[in-house]
Specification:
This protein is mainly α and about 280 residues long. It has a domain of about 160 residues. The protein is about 65% helix and about 5% strand. It has 9 helices and 2 strands, in the order ααααββααααα. The chain has a two-stranded antiparallel ribbon. A hairpin with a 2-residue loop joins strand 1 and strand 2. Helix 1 packs across helix 6, helix 4 packs antiparallel against helix 5 and helix 7 packs across helix 8. The radius of gyration is 23 Å and the shape is flat. The two termini are about 35 Å apart.
């Protein structure tokens, strides 16, 4: 299951989305998240989903690979859906029948609760998939350069912009590495007779301890090796540091920016003038 974690992985392929400026992709992600939270009806959320589908198609990434990102939040999605279905207090009617479908003590299933839960699930799916699409189409180096460029105004107040961007990039890059390391450690423990997949919650938590200790040691060892490698290459932070590849905007970035502006404008209009309000 851990090997299916897609967040932080890069999918190498030549595409329209891969060739976009990393700054535009970061701004597009931020604006897309804003649009998702501004959406107050299924039509607006459907438009957001359509834009994301087109982005995946232009990125030339298989849909199955992108959907793997959802596996990591399935428990959160199910838990949130159950809570909203049984405890949502709305009495709106969306189809023929009573507003309250089932009620027992403090539990109450309503049409409004089911609709709101479906809306929330779709919103969570879009958030996770769009975030994963950024790391799928952007290398860690490009992501670092993009974050550093966007945060350049903070340099005026002596904020360590380059160091912050580097930390974020290394953290994203280490996610799939640590997941692979965890998978190897768990397989090694199982080969030695460890039982990690059965028993109650308390037993499973206790069985994870033999996995966490070598995982932490491996993480510290990798961090130490990374620090030695940076010292060996005379890395001294962002001061007086030049770049081999400079970021330049192109016609692709203009198209992406116009698409983002149109998406946010459309969602804002539908927020104040809803077609099918919840």
């Amino acid at each position: 299951m851990l090997k299916d974690v897609s967040f932080g992985q890069y999918y190498p392929v030549k595409s329209f989305v891969h060739n976009l400026d990393p700054r535009i992709k970061i701004l597009f992600l931020i604006g897309y998240i804003v649009a998702i939270f501004l959406a107050k009806e299924f039509l607006a959320l459907g438009i957001c989903a359509a834009v994301l589908i087109f982005a995946i198609l232009f990125a030339r990434i298989p849909f199955g690979k992108v959907l793997r990102a959802v596996k990591g939040i399935l428990f959160l999605v199910l838990f949130t859906a159950v809570i909203n279905v049984f405890f949502h207090s709305g009495d709106a009617v969306y189809w023929e029948g009573p507003a309250v479908l089932w009620e027992w003590k403090i539990f109450r299933v309503t049409q409004a609760g089911i609709v709101f839960s479906a809306f929330l699930i779709l919103r969570l799916f879009l958030l996770v998939i769009c975030s994963s699409l950024l790391t799928y189409t952007t290398t860690p180096v490009s992501l670092t350069d993009g974050i550093e460029s966007l945060l350049t105004p903070l340099k005026w107040i002596r904020f360590p912009v380059h160091e912050l961007a580097l930390i974020m990039s290394i953290a994203l890059r280490f996610i799939p590495i640590l997941m692979d390391e965890t998978e190897r450690i768990m397989n090694a423990q199982k080969a030695r007779g460890a039982n990690l997949d059965s028993g109650g919650p308390a037993k499973r938590v206790k069985a994870i301890v033999p996995v966490l200790i070598p995982l932490l040691l491996s993480a510290f060892r990798r961090a130490d090796e990374l620090g030695d490698a940076m010292d060996a290459r005379c890395y001294s932070g962002g001061k007086n540091r030049t770049k081999y590849k400079k970021l330049r905007l192109s016609w692709r970035d203009l198209i992406a920016f116009v698409l983002l502006a149109g998406l946010i404008a459309g969602v804002v209009v539908m927020r104040f003038f809803p077609v099918f309000p919840l």
